[in-house]
Amino acid sequence: MSVRLSDYDYVLPRELIAQHPLEHRQDSRMMVLHRADQKIEHRQFREIKTFVQPSDLLVLNDTRVLSARRFSDEGGIEFLFLERLGSARWKCMVMPGRKMRVGATATIDHVCLRVEEITTEGERVVAFDKDIDVYAGGSTPLPPYITRPGDETDAARYQTVFAREPGAVAAPTAGLHFTLEILSEIPHTFVTLHVGPGTFLPVRSDNISQHRMYAERFCISPEAADKINKARRIVAVGTTAVRVLETATRNTGLVRRQIEQQSGETDLFIYPPFTFRVVDALFTNFHLPRSTLLMLVSAFAGREFTLRAYEEAVRAGYRFYSYGDCMLIL
Q: Are residues 147 and 18 in the same domain?
């Protein structure tokens, strides 16, 4: 299997990048990949329950996206607040970075902040003159490939209907297709992984094995662990659920699909070749070229089969990325 970054590339017409959600979550198209015979089907997401047996278990990520996007009072600086470091101190991403060097200042809610440090990843550590609730006036942090301004619909639609644990700066987008009605008809459970800023950052090394993932916080409850251990087949909903499950079994050192209640951080980078110990099927969106998410899917479905499916999706006019269509890999 290749570790060359260029081997995880594909050509995507810009018009296929979904800029808005569909009117109804469940109206997405669903490409079904059968690994055993390398077959591709074109279906609708609402048909997903026909692929799930009573003894199967869907595992979904119930993280909730924070209103972490803020602008300076004069509107010239955009902040994405990532982590509280202490009283009145935060780690954040800023745009444009050239205006926020060490010592630079800005105001939010008429409170001054100063850049104390620039991390090796380019994030800023800022200190406010006094503590404020940065989320109170914040908005949904849409991904950079959604080029339109955010609006009031994004607060609801860039959030899963089952989101309950605040802590993410990006949505676990595979879960955006589900309605409570569809979930009620499918065996499922929830784990939590708070999606961090690494989801926005490109792989910069030509040898992907040299890439390092951001650590992200996760949690598995006793109830979820029990359901996972008893299921016949695990269907992970999204790459974040995959990383939680595969981290959990490696943390405990137990046999395949035996995991325990746990919480912690994961920086697990999944790329070909990779031995999956827990996940049997994967439900996911279509991901960016050269991204760690595409590499994870390639590890699960095979790089050649994955890229052939993406070429087919482009030909068939599928909608890509966060608000786009979906894929079920069996």
A: yes
My answer on whether 231 and 105 are in the same domain is no
In the chain, how many domains are there?
Answer: 2
| Interatomic CA distance for residues 115 and 99, integer angstroms | 10
Q: Is the residue at 276 inside a domain? A: yes
Residue 138 lies in a domain: no
259: left (phi over 0), alpha (psi -120 to 50) or beta: beta
Looking at every residue in the chain, the average pLDDT score rounds to 95
Closest CA to 62 of 155, 154, 182, 195: 195
Q: What is the pLDDT of residue 58?
A: 98
pTM across the whole model: 0.93
Looking up tokens 């996911």 gives 284
Shared-domain flag, residues 75 and 55? no
22 and 167 part of one domain: yes
Q: DSSP states of 237-302 as a string?
A: ESHHHHHHHHHHHHHHT-STT----EEEEE-----SS---SS-SEEEEE---TT-HHHHHHHHHH-
Tens digits of per-residue pLDDT, 106-155?
999 999 999 999 998 889 999 999 999 999 989 999 998 999 988 889 99
| Same-domain pairing of 211 and 278 | yes
Are 173 and 299 part of one and the same domain?
yes
- Whether residue 102 is predicted with pLDDT greater than 70 in this model: the reply is yes
Domain that holds residue 59: 5-66+143-329
With tokens 């040898």, the residue in question is 207
Closest CA to 91 of 266, 241, 268, 214: 214
- State how far the Cα of 184 lies from the Cα of 178, in Å rounded to an integer: 10
Both 98 and 44 in one domain: the answer is no
DSSP single-letter state for residue 97: G
What percent of the chain lies above the pLDDT cut of 70? Answer: 98
Q: For residue 122, with 0-12 CB atoms within 10 Å meaning exposed, 13-18 middle and 19 or more buried, which class applies?
A: exposed
